[in-house]
Amino acid sequence: MRIHSSAHAAIRLEALLVMLLTIPFHACADGPSELASESPTAVDSNPAPPAPPPGTDSVVPPPSDTTTPPPPDPTPPPPPDTTTPPPPQVRCAFPGGSSATPQHVGIAFGPTHVPPPKLGGSFTGTQITATDSSCLLFDLEKARRANARVFISFTGNAQYNRDENGFSLDKWKRRVDRFRNVDLSSYLADGTILGHLVMDEPNDPHEWNGKTVSPAQIEEMAKYSKEVWPSMTTYVRAFPDYMKGGQFPHLDALWFQYLDRWAPLDEFIDEHFSEARPLGLKLVTGLNVINGGSKSSGIPGKRRGKNAMSADEIRSWGGKLLDQPNLCAFLLWEYDEAYLARPDIKAALDDLAAKARSYPTTDCSR
Question: What top-level class would CATH report for the domain 108-357?
Answer without folding.
Answer: alpha beta
